[in-house]
Amino acid sequence: MAINVLIPFYSRGGSTEALANAAAEGARAAGAEVRLRRARDIVSAEVMASVPGWAEGAARMNAAYAAPTVEDIDWADAIMFGTPTRYGNVSAELKAYIDSLGGAWFQGKFNGKAGSAFCATMGTHGGAESTVISLFNVMSHLGLIIVPTGYADPIMFKAGTPYGAHAAVDGQYVKAVPADDLEVARYQGRRVAQVAGALKTLRG
Fold first, then answer.
1. pTM
2. Which secondary-structure segment (H or E) carries 47?
3. Which CATH code is given to the segment(s) 4-203?
4. Do residues 30 and 195 make contact, with C-beta atoms less than 8 angstroms apart?
């Protein structure tokens, strides 16, 4: 039975992107097919140009990852949302994609599928847990079955949060996400794919 895992994420500097790719590796290791999708920027070119590296990073990632669509929701058996922390909450870019899915929600396209979330911050205490939990609220409304990381793997006693993977990096454009944080994301991807398979069997 094929298991499809959708990973819609927003990343500006590359940290959330690194977690998304690690989660994809974990899901694939569990036998899933994965779609990585980057939510698009919603600010003006002038605003992006005011932050060194933003426009260049966006161009690179937009070339590497398609934008998430409603069709992706139909395809997916599991959805793993990835976001940088914005004042302890989900980024506006990822939320804009989520807010476009009202029609799919009304049709019950999310019901009974697996849902999970991960995030990156610029500091160890940058609001990681509240950011992931804010997406739990969204997933509850959508009807997803929330899959937290918990402590079911030894890596969770070294990094991450019990809610979802997290990377804390100093500076806006640091690409070197710590190895333990990437391993948590891989574990999260495996766990989500496994749960999604069980749920798909129940959905028939």
1. 0.96
2. helix 45-49
3. 3.40.50.360
4. no
